[in-house]
Each structure stands twice: as C-alpha cells, then as structure tokens.
Amino acid sequence: MTEKRKYFRIEAKVPLEVRLVPAAERKELRSEILKTPAFYPGKSLSPNEDEWDLIDWMKVLNYKLDTLIGLLSKERSPEGKSPLPSGMQMTHVNISAGGLAFISRSAYKSGDVLCLKTVLPSNPPLSLLLYGKVVLMQKVQEYFKVGVEFLGMSGDIRHEVANFVMNQERETLRDGLK
Fold first, then answer.
1. In the 8-state DSSP scheme, what is residue 13?
2. What is the C-alpha separation between 98 and 8, in angstroms, rounded?
3. How many CB atoms lie within 10 A of CB 89?
4. How far apart are CA 74 and CA 68, in angstroms?
5. 98-128 pLDDT, tens per residue?
6. pTM higher than 0.70, yes or no?
7. Which one of 3.40.640.10, 2.40.10.220, 2.40.50.140, 3.20.20.70 gives the CATH number of domain 10-36+89-177?
8. Is it true that the peptide bond before 124 is cis, omega within 30 degrees of 0?
C-alpha cells in the first residue's frame, strides 16, 4: 500500500471541542490562533502600556499552572468536575499539519465541516480554532473514528501545527534513547 500523506503525523492527547458547522456558516472559514489560551478565564484589565508584557507572561504562567493541576488531578477534581471549560475534553488525537483524527461519540457524514477548538501543549501553549472537512468516518464499537482535512488554514498556522508535531516527535525519540 502506498502512503499518500503529505505531512508527518503523531498521536497526542489534547483538549478538544468539536462542533458541526451549519451549511449557512461555511462560506469563508478561516482557522486562527487564539490570542488568549482557550480556557484562560481572564479578567478585564486596564493596565498601563508598559505592563502588557508582564500580563502576557502572567497569563502563560497561569495557563501552565492550570494545565499541571489538571494533569496531576488526572483530569478530574474530587467533586468530579473537569478543569477544562464546558465543551472541551481531553482527547487522544492523531494530528498532522494537514488534518486530525479522533474518536467521537457523534457520527458525521463525509463532507461535513467541523469547527475544532484545541490547545496544543507546546511552549507556550498554542490555542487554535480550526476547521476541517470530514474525510473519514469509521464505526469503532460504540464510537466513531473521525478524520478531518483542515480547511481555511494559513501557512503560518500550518507551520505552527507542523512545529508542534515535530517537537513532540523529537521528545518521543529523546525519551526513547534514555
């Protein structure tokens, strides 16, 4: 069998929210990098001009602490509440600069367009709003394996995703040599 993929893929576990995009909203979809991490509950501030750099670093530190706390609590608090915002769940994905595959409880049709909100655990974390066309749908027991090809993605965003993939693979190889 000949491999037709253009991009290198990895397995990762990331926060993910998936939403079906209605046909009326599909005209001009543009993936984007979200300035604030997707689950940073930022407060409205009116800082001085010279304080913005400090605030940005504090947001990054806050996000990292929240992420570590979530991981240490095994994604659940004692009350059973998820540290992720409503709609996002830690999900095993297969990701490349060209697309994403994940397991879903929901079935989609080939050609459906999905809105995917995720945070790639890079340094600093990268919050993304992505769009993808469903190109794979397979029943796996009571779930569905969904594969999407990214749509409306700029070269800059594709480059960021490719960097994440390569950095994760580099870490995996480094860990394997230990």
1. E
2. 9
3. 12
4. 10
5. 999 999 999 999 999 999 999 888 877 888 9
6. yes
7. 2.40.10.220
8. yes
